[in-house]
Amino acid sequence: NADVAKNRAKLDGRGGLQYFKQHFHDELVRQHRLAEGLERAIANRELSLHYQPQVSTVNGRIENLEALLRWYPADGESVSPAEFIPLAERTGLIERLGEWAMEEACRQQAAWRAAGIVDLRIDLNLSGRQVLAADGLERFEACVMRHGLRPQDVGIELTENVLIEADDRILAKLRRLYHRGVRIAIDDFGTGYSSLSYLKHFPVTALKVDRTFVRDAPQQPEDRAIMEAAIFIGHRLGLEVVAEGVETGEQLALLREMRCDLVQGFYFYPPLPAAEVFPLLVAPSATPH
Ligand code: C2E
Ligand code: MG
Ligand code: MG
Ligand code: MG
Question: For the EAL domain, which residue ranges apply (predicted)?
């Protein structure tokens, strides 16, 4: 990566600098190609949504799905959202991608409802640009209504950094969504740069404890303490608490002990295409394998 290249450049003198320039140039070319490909991804039908179940620690039922974008370019290997989402944010394309994801999640939710699955929520990740755009939240609400869905059928995940940046106008809109029954979750809770005081006046219904804490909780007392504190504060504020990135039975046991409400992670299910989620939803109860 760039830091490594930079350090090498310092150590190696001119040869290193050459290496660094080449590396930097290659990376720019790659990003440029990706951006071009992403521009065409919607029209080329290369995007899809996967859905990752969130399971109740109380009864093992799937209560919620997180919708996650997938990009399989027709002429190449799949690209991770961890790469193309930040790219789309930089180029402004995120608003169109977000719009596509919104439309697709609502279409899918309406189809599942028509098939008799009526008490399932789907949560969408909204990027900062979507939330802060003049009409971003209106578009979300309009999309939900256009598909004949209720406000509680489709929720949103935001990061704390987005909430911190929101001005009064945006906050008023979020509050309206909240009062209509839209679920609003704070994603990656505990990794932002903000103080906890924002929880006092921001309209949220759930906290998602970041997976780095979950990952290390069994071995690291500090991570365990932070995870426990996050669950505690969430509950004291009347919020639902979700743990992300649950991969082991040990992590699950801790989360159960701490009364975390919902768990999400590879231990249960990876993000899955809609066709693979459907049978899980009609099964009487989802038990971890
Ligand atoms: P996120 O919202 O925090 O999503 C959770 C990420 O953790 C997903 O990565 C998911 O596949 C991954 N994950 C789930 N369970 C486990 C586990 O047990 N272990 C590990 N190691 N990872 C697990 P993914 O799908 O690659 O997405 C990465 C990020 O990209 C998301 O983080 C989200 O910030 C963003 N993203 C994805 N889809 C969208 C979208 O439609 N809109 C926007 N704005 N952002 C999106
Ligand atoms: Mg998320
Ligand atoms: Mg998350
Ligand atoms: Mg996370």
Answer: 31-285
Structure tokens belonging to residue 34: 């990706």
Query: Which two three-digit tokens encode residue 134?
Result: 């003049």
pTM (global) more than 0.95:
no
Which among 151, 41, 142 is positioned nearest to 94, based on CA atoms? Answer: 41
Ligand 1 atom at minimum distance from 271 CA: 11
| ipTM rounded to 2 decimals | 0.97
| 259: helix, strand or coil | coil
- Cβ neighbours of residue 29 under 8 Å, at least 6 residues apart? none
Q: Express each pLDDT in 103-155 by its tens digit.
A: 999 999 999 999 999 999 999 999 999 999 889 999 999 999 999 999 999 99
- Count the helix, strand and coil residues of the chain and give each as a percent rounded to the nearest 5: 55, 15, 30
DSSP-H helix ranges across 42-127: 81-91, 94-114
d(CA 95, CA 81): 15
Q: Which of 42, 68, 188 to mutate to test the pocket of ligand 1 (most atoms within 8 A of CB)?
A: 68
The predicted structure's pLDDT at residue 240: 97
